[in-house]
Design a protein that fits this description.
- The structure is a single chain.
- By secondary structure, the chain is an alpha/beta fold.
- It is built from 9 helices and 10 strands.
- The chain is elongated.
- The chain starts with a strand and ends in an 11-residue tail after the last strand.
- 31% of the residues are buried.
């Protein structure tokens, strides 16, 4: 299975490009396209209404839109429940008051999105391609950076947890017995719920990080022939390089006879940043292609390389 992330500055047409790629690939393969962008327009592009879960568009093409607000709420409820159960013996400290403001914490949306991506890749194994239409540049870079950052923190937390267990075990041997009403942190790692959860999270994030950096993952950067789009695309490309993520395709979208010189300039400037990355130029077109049940922007050329 191959994973494609379509990213770029807001308004450059990445949703249209992601939809066109999904349509192209679905002619020969099974494709799931997932919109992670809060400003969903995937349903509008295909002319259908997309609710929770997957929407079957053709025999080989399925559509999905992620509700970021609902996703963040569900993620927060799950993590709060884990914390509440784990530290139930500390209820006297009124931790619920602290949990209630977690929804305002930085990073909740990014972790919720990352959890959704990980689950989609893990569960939707019957597709040949999964295409993610991502949010605008800043949020995209943040959640793509999370696996590597999180692995570092989890491994440190595992070290701290093991130190706690060793000290608790030492105290237990000195005291002889522990109050049965007390929540006991077992010395054996396999019996400790917190360490077990940290190990599982570490395994999941390592697996996802491997997928994101692997040969079957393709980041597609969409931009327009204008200076604002160029500058943000350069920053995004540099961020992807710093994260070690595979930028494999550039799409210069909305090119016309009027802006062709600017298009050439933008492509030259992007080439200086990304090097030898495959480039596709897409002309601006108002022609619509009837997809059978809806409409899809008519991209005359295939925008995904045959080698994919």
């Amino acid at each position: 299975m191959k994973i494609l992330f379509f990213t770029g500055k807001g308004g450059v047409g990445k949703s249209n490009m992601a939809a066109a790629a999904a349509w192209q690939l679905s002619q020969k393969s099974r494709v799931l396209i997932v919109s992670l962008d809060p400003a969903h327009n995937l349903g509008d592009i295909f002319g259908v209404t997309i609710k929770n879960g997957k929407k079957k568009f053709t025999k080989t093409l399925f559509l999905s839109e992620i509700d970021l607000r609902e996703l963040s709420r569900a993620y927060l409820e799950q993590e709060t429940s884990v914390l509440s159960n784990t530290y139930s013996y500390l209820k006297i400290l009124n931790l619920d008051a602290y949990f209630s403001i977690l929804k305002y914490s930085p990073g909740i949306e990014e972790y919720a999105l990352l959890t959704s991506i990980e689950k989609t890749i893990r569960d939707e194994t019957d597709f040949d391609y999964i295409i993610f239409d991502t949010p605008p540049t800043g949020l995209t870079l943040r959640f793509l950076a999370l696996p590597k950052v999180t692995i570092t923190w989890i491994e440190r937390l595992m070290q701290i947890r093991r130190q706690i267990l060793e000290k608790r075990y030492t105290i237990h041997r000195i005291r002889g017995t522990l109050d049965s009403a007390e929540t006991i942190l077992d010395y054996r790692e396999a019996d400790d719920g917190i360490l077990t959860r940290l190990k599982k999270l570490n395994m999941n994030y390592r697996s996802l990080d491997g997928v994101l950096r692997g040969s079957d993952c393709h980041v597609v950067l969409v931009f327009n022939p204008d200076m604002l789009s160029l500058r943000e695309s350069q920053r995004l490309a540099e961020g992807l390089r710093e994260l070690g993520l595979p930028l494999r395709l550039l799409i210069n979208n909305k090119v016309t006879e009027t802006n062709k010189k600017m298009a050439e300039f933008v492509e030259q400037q992007m080439g200086e940043v990304v090097g030898d990355v495959f480039l596709e130029r897409v002309e601006l077109s108002e022609t619509l292609l009837d997809g059978g049940k809806g409409t899809l922007y008519d991209i005359k050329e295939n925008i995904i390389p045959d080698s994919w």
